[in-house]
Amino acid sequence: MSNELKRTAAEIEDLIRKIARIMNKRLRDSLKESAITPPQFFALVNIYREEGITIGELCDQMFLACSTVSGLIDRLEKVELVERYRDEEDRRVVRLKLTKKGRICTETILEKRREKFEKDLEMIEMERQHELIDNLNLLLQIMTDAESEKIND
Predict the structure, then answer these.
(1) Domains in the chain: how many in total?
(2) Residue 41 is part of a domain; what is its CATH number?
(3) pLDDT value at 107 more than 90
(4) Cα 26 → chain centroid
(5) What is the domain extent for residue 142?
(6) Taking every annotated instance into account, which residue ranges of this chain make up the domain HTH marR-type (predicted)?
(7) Is there a domain that residue 117 lies in?
(8) What is the distance between the alpha carbons of residues 46 and 99, in angstroms, rounded to a whole number?
(9) Do 100 and 47 fall into the same domain?
(10) In the structure, what pLDDT confidence band is assigned to residue 153 with cuts at 50, 70 and 90?
């Protein structure tokens, strides 16, 4: 690997880490009003995007132990944001869905995050925004393909 490629990789990784840190701070700030923790929010978002997800699937997506996620869901259920229900085809399977309150809460937080990010993007001309999207998609695809190859090896 050339020195230039090493420097580029390090710089891109550092930039992504810094952006993620800012986005995580913004998330924590927006969650203060709702008394939801970041892991609880990520669970809500996963259920929002894939209603009917099982706890096992949620564990895989969140990279957390099932006991941890189960406790998270218990707390979200107590505050009436999530509910468990039995699968119609296989009664042994427990699925998750947001309550009306959970859906409103999740959508409100997502919208606030989106609005802040839109203000950031207003500083970049549209053509460069599209280039950024294309480049991020390319990087994501390359990394996803590399992960798939690891699993298949």
Answers:
(1) 2
(2) 1.10.10.10
(3) yes
(4) 14
(5) 123-153
(6) 9-144
(7) no
(8) 14
(9) yes
(10) low
